[in-house]
Write a structure and sequence with these properties.
This protein is 0% helix and 62% strand. With 254 residues, the chain is mainly beta. It has one domain: Pectate Lyase C-like.
Length: 254
């Protein structure tokens, strides 16, 4: 059961609403064209499963801004069939961060593009800004930007995971994957609670292309003890602009 479900609507406006302790997703938008969502407060315990704050799928021209979300799952999740989504001025935490995906489940085709997330703050979340896909999917996720993002004690601040697997599933290796291209990170800063702050884990058969990182500075939350952060990447082509910390082993300067 979901607290609020918007289905097959046009030019929707939702504002100044409060959702507390939904048994599953708090607000879902499906098959909707044109929506403006603002000034929401969404709260659920951080150990409550599948309690996404806002889920958007098969929808276009959606704006979400000036909202505070803390749940046991993604603050905002973006599924397939979405385009022209703008998310800004979100306070996220606790929860699993802001996620695009998961995409490509059960060998399905994904179509996601023009997703822009900016001016957001994430605190005490397990992930920061994340793109996640299942093995065996197809299609694309492209033209995605994360700009002016601040992390405070986030476990995995920047993640691309093309090996997403629910803990209850036995996920075997598959050759096909959702193609991830043209992802832009700019002015992304803050602290990581774990040593590895950036994880780009792309498909073995289809590399992530057009990944640009500009002005990134993610420090260890234990910085006072001399701790530093690291980055890892697999089959990703990354272009570095400006100062980027931690440094990615798969990057090249523009």
């Amino acid at each position: 059961m979901q607290a609020f479900f918007v289905l097959k609507c046009k030019d929707v406006q939702l504002s100044d609403l409060k959702f507390v302790n939904s048994p599953r997703k708090h607000l879902s938008l499906y098959d909707t064209v044109g929506a403006q969502v603002s000034r929401l407060t969404i709260k659920a315990p951080e150990d409550s499963p599948n309690t996404d704050g806002i889920h958007i799928q098969n929808s276009q021209n959606v704006t979400v801004f000036k909202s505070t979300i803390g749940t046991g799952d993604d603050c905002i999740s973006i599924g397939t069939g979405t385009s022209n989504i703008n998310i800004s001025h979100i306070l996220c935490g606790p929860g699993h961060g802001i996620s695009i995906g998961s995409l490509g489940e059960d060998d399905s085709e994904a179509k996601v593009e023009r997703i822009h997330i900016f001016n957001c703050r994430l605190s005490n979340t397990t992930n920061g800004v994340r793109i996640k896909t299942w093995q065996g999917g197809s299609g694309y996720a492209k033209d995605i930007s994360f700009i002016n993002i601040f992390f405070d004690f986030v476990e995995k601040p920047i993640v691309i995971n093309q090996y997403y697997c629910d803990d209850n599933d036995n996920c075997s290796n598959k050759t096909s994957s959702v193609q991830i291209t043209d992802v832009y990170y700019n002015n992304v800063k803050g602290s990581s609670s774990e040593e590895t702050a950036i994880i780009l884990d792309c498909s073995e058969t289809t590399s992530c292309n057009g990944i640009v990182m500009e002005n990134i500075n993610i420090k260890s939350a234990k910085d006072g003890d001399g701790e530093t952060t690291k980055a890892s990447c697999f089959n990703a082509e990354v272009i570095i602009k400006g100062d980027v910390k931690p440094r990615l082993p798969c990057s090249s300067d523009s």
